[in-house]
From TrEMBL:
SUPFAM superfamilies: FAD/NAD(P)-binding domain (SSF51905). The keyword RNA-binding does not apply. Residues 78-318 form the FAD/NAD(P)-binding domain. This is FAD/NAD(P)-binding domain-containing protein. InterPro entries: FAD/NAD-bd_sf, FAD/NAD-binding_dom. GO terms for molecular function: electron-transferring-flavoprotein dehydrogenase activity; flavin adenine dinucleotide binding. It comes from the Eukaryota. Belongs to the FAD-dependent oxidoreductase family. GO terms for cellular component: cytoplasm. It holds the Pfam family Pyr_redox_2.
Length: 402
């Protein structure tokens, strides 16, 4: 008697979701059961956000950043891609904003995060519209004389660096509330100092220890055109600017989990509250060491990437490291059915950061040959193509030349 296919639903087709799917196909040869995977993403094309700031200053680079999902799956095996937005998660089905319901045996939640535009573009589901919006931002950069970036995390440093490289004649200010740029836990002070020096060497006015509030600038409106003044209270000076970018942090929306309750809640978990599944400060999903939702009722629901708290720092690198383990764990569960296979544990992540500031420039922290900083490694590993070729390869497509 033939068995019905196991249904895996993956929500989010970027580093986490596609990382899982690629690794699933590498491992699945050992699997004896038919499996159908459905990938759901709200966008029509995959976006390599790592290159957003290069596209801001060089719009033709957009071509390298958006890839269709057409070759992701082998043909004729029941796998499919659905464009839609996840609204609700239930024990064995999800509901999309369209009202469509999709059943699953295993679910992978990889819905990521939203960094302020132009890093990631919220609310736009068509790549053509996203590219058009990027053109608009590019024109604003071209027209501005004095540009200000608020925030000097990794995105703020890269955004300012790309603009400084492409438009060396523009006045550029970066304002940061902290004492050092890229001030993430566990990263060496020398790296942070190297990033600060790098920005200043590019001619950028780096203002530290200054928390500013710019009227109208928020996550919903992260790009403000038009002449305005910004008061620097600690430095007791005012800057005149005509284009401001917000680059402070990212937001995670996992509100789709508020409908998730265990199948036999009344008997087994009478006091269950779905809000316990999510870190209330960051809204990231609480994951256990095997990358499952951290609750015994949901061993069949996994999470990876920025929407998950499996790793402290939200990076594409964590998806690269963790997706092979995630794929193996899902396959183990499929193979062993309701048994209790011993699942693999997510790997530790080395402290790596590559900051690209133009095609030939950057700052890097790498745990090889001792900790190294500087331009050479960033240029070799990231700055030239911002991992675009790798992104296209993972989509089983050849990257366009730009
Ligand atoms: C400018 C920039 C540079 C970066 N550089 C680096 C770097 O050098 N190295 C590094 O490791 N990391 C870097 N990062 C971080 C990295 O981009 C993220 O950690 C990575 O994108 C996370 O991947 P993800 O798949 O978890 O989420 P995302 O990339 O955010 O993708 C989530 C996907 O889910 C979809 N989605 C979201 N919500 C829903 C929903 N409700 N329904 C359906 N679909 C949904 C989205 O459309 C999207 O396709 C950088 C980030 C930025 C912005």
């Amino acid at each position: 008697m033939s068995r019905s296919p196991v249904k895996i639903v993956v929500v989010g087709g970027s580093y986490g979701g596609v990382g899982f799917i690629s690794n699933y196909f590498k491992e699945a040869k050992k699997l004896q059961r038919p499996v159908e995977i459905t990938l759901i993403d709200r966008r029509d094309y995959r976006h390599n956000c790592l290159g957003s700031f290069r596209a801001l200053v060089q719009p033709d680079f957009s071509t390298a950043l958006w890839a269709p999902y057409t070759s992701l799956f082998p043909q004729g095996q029941g796998h499919k891609v659905v464009q839609g937005s996840l609204k609700e998660v239930h024990h064995h089905h999800i509901v999309l904003e369209s009202g469509d319901s999709i059943a699953f045996d295993y679910l992978v939640l990889a819905t990521g995060s939203y960094n302020p535009a132009p890093a990631k573009i919220q609310g736009i589901t068509s790549y053509k519209q996203a590219v058009a919006l990027n053109e608009q931002y590019h024109k604003a950069v071209q027209a501005a004389r004095h540009i200000t970036v608020v925030g000097a995390g990794a995105c703020g440093v890269e955004l300012a660096g790309e603009i400084a490289h492409a438009f060396p004649d523009k006045k550029l200010t970066v304002i940061h509330a902290g004492a050092r740029p890229v001030d993430y836990p566990g990263f060496a002070d020398e790296f942070k100092a190297a990033a600060a020096k790098h920005l200043r060497d590019l001619g950028i006015d780096l203002v530290l220890n200054e928390r500013v509030s710019v009227e109208g600038l928020d996550m919903e409106h992260p790009v403000l055109e038009g002449r305005r003044q910004i008061q620097l209270k600690c430095q007791q000076r005012t800057i005149e600017t005509d284009l401001v970018f917000l680059s402070t942090g990212y937001v995670v929306d996992t509100s789709y989990l508020r409908t998730l309750v265990p199948e036999n809640k009344a008997a087994d978990y009478p006091n269950f509250d779905p809000s316990s599944l999510v870190d209330q400060r960051t809204h990231r999903i609480k994951a256990n060491a095997h990358m499952q939702i951290d609750h015994p009722a949901f061993a069949h629901i996994f999470t990876i990437g920025d929407c998950s708290n499996a790793y402290e720092t939200a990076t594409a690198a964590s998806c690269t490291y963790a997706s092979p383990i995630l794929a193996k764990n899902v396959i183990k569960l499929i193979q062993d059915g309701n048994g209790s296979p011993s699942l693999l544990t997510k790997p530790d992540l080395p402290k790596v950061m590559l900051l690209a500031t133009g095609p030939r420039n950057g700052v890097a922290m790498l745990p090889i040959f001792g900790t190294r900083f500087g331009n050479f490694f960033a240029r070799m590993l990231k700055s030239k193509d911002l991992f675009s070729k790798m992104m296209w390869q993972s989509m089983n497509l050849e990257a366009p030349r730009v």
